[in-house]
Design brief:
The structure is a homodimer of 413-residue chains. Chain A is built from seven helices and 26 strands. The first copy, chain A, has 413 residues and is α/β, with parallel strands linked by helices. Chain A has four domains: 161 residues, Molybdenum Cofactor Biosythetic Enzyme, Chain A (3-Layer(aba) Sandwich), CATH 3.40.980.10; 58 residues, Molybdopterin biosynthesis moea protein, domain 2, CATH 3.90.105.10; 88 residues, Molybdopterin biosynthesis moea protein, domain 3 (Molybdopterin biosynthesis moeA protein, domain 3, Beta Complex); 76 residues, Beta-clip (Beta Barrel), CATH 2.40.340. In chain A, strands 16-13-17-21-20-18 form a six-stranded mixed sheet, with helices on both faces. A five-stranded mixed sheet of chain A has the order 8-5-7-6-9, with no helix packed on it. In chain A, strand 20 and strand 21 form a beta hairpin. In chain A, helix 3 runs parallel beside helix 6.
């Protein structure tokens, strides 16, 4: 029996960040930059107006006010998208739109709301200071600036900045492609009503969805029979398109545990009992020329999901260039007593709820129904796993427990 | 000038949850159930073994122990996937695998670890209680149970449960399809280096990515010139595939504000000044036979992003059958003084950081650099918007400020 930490350490030491690729900006959403990005342009790229109004020489309006309007001739009209360099003589104005280039010589903009909106001559009832409502070239970004660092994960706002500085393609760590294989003679395809002795392959769908929810690219291979040759040829053919492989089933103490039987002598594969509940039988190794990580998870659905959260997700995040953990544990108060196994880390499905008070946010963890490792009902209503260390022998109402959130834990407010 | 709440209320009262459609389970990931799902099957579907071991009559092993092993003949072998009904005579055992159907008559399973693993006769060195290591049919879900309620959002674990009860297709509220249109003569396509007077259409990419990050389906229409006819025909043709339309630009006080000019008389469109900074000029209405919501956002990138977060995202969530808000505001302490506008809600780009102490988690909000409404640099490094109410006239270091998180706010731990 090895500890959870021993198994996890072996995994994270075996996986590598994937080699970078070039992607179009929108295709890179969710990916991590594999390079610093230096801007070749300044932002704004040219001096422009922050308001719809009139470009002026501020000095011409020094005496302007509600009681003493100043009249200026309007020498022209500058729309956004104007690509000509214009020039403004002292004593004159030009109508200008938000984002349009400032004419040379002008040093301020009077908002249209402070004028009569005239087209040939404009009545201005406010003074302006030099630089007012003018966006200087480079005040946001200077050409030569590193605008984004290697390791930044690209969301909508990061993509916008990269686009704005002229980037079309970026070098990023790609999303890992993950093959999901379910094994077992008892399995039937989803959408089929199970007969006696049969079970729907819910694991395959669950892990496919979990891989996708993590921002990776899943390939679901249907159910594979408990037959050594079939399983081996499936794994071999799938390795070509996989950055990682997840299997479920066939890793326990049974007589027909094909996965364990076939993979035991392959690559660095090792099958261990891990001191956890659920999820004890685990296998992991890297195989093939590409040293593809293979996670062989137990077949009970709850065991498979817990194993994914505890072992697979950290590895996939590292492969994607992301931190091994991205969400914090949540400290909660146990709502009631519950039984814990001796000498194993317990991952109990709980429903976390919270209340706000003047002392801050307080979370409560209550067991989410029936806890069998085959019980999908309670898995679907849980929103966290309470992680009870191996040395803890009981949980009593009021105890502090540390919880691993499954998806959002806070209700809409 | 109207308030943020007035504009938001008009929007949320105008949008409808989309009509439900049937989708395959994996295609429904992220969608909300439009029906209660009642199981037609029980889970487990049949009485089965929770362990690899031997199915027995518990009474036969009443006296078994380390010092007093009991020997039983092994009458057969039951693998998972066995679909035959078998029967176990008293005084006998059958080798059985995890998940395999229990033979009639057997009332417990001895784990293989407590035996010698024999194939024709087995030496058992432990007694078992009736029901031990046996999963009863229906102990997780009973046929006829409502296993999931209308309104549940489907993630990996929910999909697993629905698959397990035999569901192939589910009726869900679909993801809204959202058309994103940028307007402005100054705009050029991303991947192009801007010349004098030109600006890359970063808004189009940003909002496309933001729509996708929200779980909706974006269609980016490239940049549309400031030409009434072109804009009108673009909107008309896009309405066919849209559940909602977002435009940026052309809604302010300028002479070439095409969006405002073209849409002012269309459907229920209304253009307002909203008391907020950034984001003041806003337009919204429903247009066409389909009463498609159209959000016309200002063209400054920061204004566009803030408008998306404050007005568009709540509407899209409601259309998707989700709560209007899904993340809580975070209370933080201002790291320093900053200026606020009079009479308007300020959405200040801030970097939230946190520290844990024995008093709990404490967040600090610091201004994320240059705050111009065109400044993408600070938008890309911010992780929240500090929302300062219109009646607040100053923020001082140490003040409590309420923050709207942009993406995850907690660092990996």
């Amino acid at each position: 029996m090895i500890t959870v930490q021993e198994h996890l350490s072996r995994i994270v030491e075996s996986v590598q960040r994937l080699p970078p690729i070039g992607l179009d900006l929108l295709d890179a959403q969710g990916c991590v930059l594999a390079q610093d990005v230096t801007s070749e342009v300044s932002l704004p790229g040219f001096r422009n107006s922050a308001m719809d109004g009139y470009a002026v020489h501020a000095a011409d309006l020094a005496a302007a006010g509600d009681a003493a309007p100043v009249v200026l001739p309007v020498a022209g009209d500058i729309a956004a998208g104007n690509t000509q360099t214009l020039s403004l003589a002292p004593g004159q104005s030009m109508r200008i739109m938000t984002g349009a280039p400032m004419p040379d010589g002008a040093d301020a903009v009077v908002p249209v709301e402070r004028t009569d909106g005239g087209l040939t001559r404009v009545v201005v009832s406010a003074s302006v200071s030099v630089g007012q409502h003018v966006r200087e070239a480079g005040e946001d970004v200077q050409a030569g600036d590193v605008v984004m660092s290697q390791g930044t994960r690209l969301g909508p706002r990061q993509i916008a900045l990269l686009a704005a500085v002229g980037t079309g393609e970026v070098r990023v760590t790609p999303r890992p492609r993950v093959v999901v294989i379910s094994t077992g003679d008892e399995l039937i395809e989803p959408g089929t009503r199970p007969g006696f002795g049969q079970v729907v392959d819910s694991n395959g769908l669950m892990l496919t969805a979990a891989v996708r929810a993590l921002g990776c690219i899943p390939f679901r291979v249907g159910c594979v029979r408990d037959d050594a040759q079939t399983f081996l040829s499936t794994i071999e053919s799938q390795l070509r398109r996989a950055d990682a492989v997840i299997t479920t089933g066939g890793v326990s103490m049974g007589a027909y545990d094909t996965v364990k039987e076939v993979l035991s002598a392959v690559g660095t594969m090792r099958f261990d009992k891990v001191a956890m509940q659920p999820g004890m039988p685990q296998g992991f190794g890297v195989i093939g020329e590409g040293e593809i990580p293979v996670f062989t998870l137990p077949g009970n659905p709850v065991s498979a999901l817990v194993s994914f959260e505890v072992f697979v997700a950290p590895a996939l995040r590292l492969m994607a260039g992301r931190p091994q953990r991205e969400t914090s544990m949540v400290s909660a108060v146990a709502a009631h007593d519950w039984a814990v196994p001796a000498g194993k880390v317990q991952y109990a499905r709980v429903v976390l709820s919270h209340e706000s008070s003047h002392e801050g946010l307080r979370h409560t963890a209550a067991i989410a129904g029936f806890q069998g490792s085959h019980a999908l009902g309670s898995l679907a209503v849980a929103n966290a796993l309470a992680v009870i260390p191996a040395e803890v022998t009981s949980v009593r109402a009021g105890d502090q427990v540390s919880c691993h959130p499954l998806g959002p834990i806070l209700e809409a407010s």
